[in-house]
């Protein structure tokens, strides 16, 4: 479930309540695990289990959205073969895609994948070539069968690594840039149209 955060700024308006305008759409992609943790925090705020002890009534739309999404992300696991990130890394979602133990650090030196592919690999955790082929665009022209098998092995190793073997704070380490830059990671350039 790729969710996107948006940068927003108030609109200049004559009304007392300013609206919001999206200035930078799709500024970040969130994994299912991050969305689940965020929604669990939101749920805790309303139920009073966040340490404040203050229970509040949820708005109807939010109540339904929280219930349905939490149920889906908690119970619906796309792949039962590999441990889900919420089981192996319950409170550290970024461990698997930031820092030296990440899926990105394991795959990027060998394979040129775009951001959406990394996110789908993280969310779906493929264990067969067929599942991997669904995630990778034009896999038959970009990768050999041996490379696909290697990718599956790396994915398995990253997701099966025990959290206790990963030191605290590795997600925040300053890492050298990987030479093989992600496709689609650069700034988008718009072509300016000339007035006729």
From TrEMBL:
What range does the record give for the signal peptide?
none
**Cell compartments where the protein resides:** Nucleus
Gene Ontology CC, one term: RNA polymerase III complex
Keyword match Nucleus: yes
Which keywords does the record carry?
Answer: DNA-directed RNA polymerase, Nucleus, Transcription
Superkingdom assignment? Eukaryota
Asked if the keyword Transcription belongs to this entry, the reply reads yes
- List the Gene3D superfamilies: 1.20.1250.40
Chief location category: nucleus
| A Pfam entry, by short name | RNA_pol_Rpb4
Q: Name one GO molecular function term.
A: nucleotide binding
Question: What is one Gene Ontology biological process annotated in the Swiss-Prot or TrEMBL record?
Answer: transcription initiation at RNA polymerase III promoter
Bias (Basic residues) ranges: 1-15
UniProt xrefs under SUPFAM superfamilies = HRDC-like
Where do the segments described as Disordered lie? 1-22
Query: Which family would the database say this protein is a member of?
Result: Belongs to the eukaryotic RPC9 RNA polymerase subunit family.
In Swiss-Prot or TrEMBL terms, this protein is called DNA-directed RNA polymerase III subunit RPC9
